[in-house]
Amino acid sequence: MRFDGNSGASVNYEPNSFAGPTQDPAFRERPRPVSGTVDRHNHRLDGDYYTQPGNLFRLMKADARESLIGNIAASLKHAPQRIQELQVQHFFQADPAYGAGVANALGLSFEKGNRSEDKFVAAD
What is the pTM of this model? Predict the structure, then answer.
């Protein structure tokens, strides 16, 4: 059991928006031969992080989508608005209805402008 505060409320995950810890390649496990070679897969080889979650969202029934959006919004509602906005942008990239659903559940409204003018505003 730890009695030192365990880093308090500081973030302990990566990536993060708070200058928290980052991955240190010096501690990467070395490949080990088995009946072939075992190694960690670099999941960052391509930038397509949105097709699979978007497809899954579109496969879900309406009540399952509502439940998912409600659970996400309940988890994000205490996060700073900037973090909410960053996360909602990911949901929009997976599926526009996904992003809009979470944004609405958080009370955020998205104003569409040209690319540099897109912004979130608190909904009234």
Answer: 0.65
